[in-house]
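User: Let's play a game. I give you a shape written as tokens, and you guess the letters that built it. Ready? Here's round one.
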């Protein structure tokens, strides 16, 4: 989808971390957006690769996940308006 929107192709073999960094809008909110996207990526990887095994206190609550997703939505909305 990124390339369909006129974006430069991402190098083959890019990690998810590299893709997030490359696709994040270049603005003042970029670091917040990247941080939030990387938080979701780490949670996904922990769930997927550790088969749901989390260290004590590391598993995010549903409320925490929803808060991060809403933060991302808000930051993307600000980018679209700019």
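Assistant: Ready! My guess for every position:
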């Amino acid at each position: 989808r990124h390339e369909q929107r006129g974006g430069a192709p991402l190098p083959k073999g890019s990690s998810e971390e590299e893709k997030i960094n490359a696709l994040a809008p270049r603005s003042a909110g970029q670091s917040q957006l990247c941080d939030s996207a990387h938080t979701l990526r780490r949670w996904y990887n922990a769930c997927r690769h550790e088969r749901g095994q989390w260290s004590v206190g590391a598993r995010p609550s549903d409320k925490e996940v929803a808060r991060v997703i809403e933060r991302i939505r808000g930051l993307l909305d600000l980018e679209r308006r700019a």
